[in-house]
Amino acid sequence: MPASRSLLLNGPPPQLIDSTISLLRHAEALRLPRAVASAAAGVLIHPVIDRLGLGALLPVVVTAESVARGKPAPEAYLEAARLIARAPNWCLAVDDAPDGITSALTAGMRVLAVREGLLVPVPGQTQE
User: Fold this and answer.
1) Pair 4, 43: CB distance under 8 Å
2) Which tens digit of pLDDT belongs to each residue from 10-67?
3) Which of 21, 27, 51, 103 has the most CB atoms lying inside 10 A of its own CB?
4) Residue 97: what are its φ and ψ, rounded to 5°?
5) 3 state DSSP class of 119
6) What phi and psi, each to the nearest 5 degrees, are found at residue 102?
7) Whole-angstrom Cα distance, residue 93 to residue 125?
């Protein structure tokens, strides 16, 4: 197992981003569907979600194995939208990586970027 994978699975848990957790909790309170669209393998994502106790906040998980093409292609976000039974233009994506932001925008979603622990709108999105 590569050292980075071992550290992720067995080392200290990744630090949670408070603004993202707050958004997820608010969405849960409103009974809005939530999903993860990850470019990583399920062998990494599922254990991390479990270690962080986020299973209830993230009931739907799309991983690299779920789609034919990874980010920046839109397939992961489109699959997540399909699984939560929402049109992509009704979805809000949160991502911290340029490929993920491109993926969500290409899927037709509104996007918030994670920057220094804050959620910020991605420039150039139209308001409907």
Assistant:
1) no
2) 677 778 899 999 999 999 999 999 999 999 999 999 998 999 999 999 999 999 999 9
3) 103
4) -115, 140
5) strand
6) -60, -45
7) 12
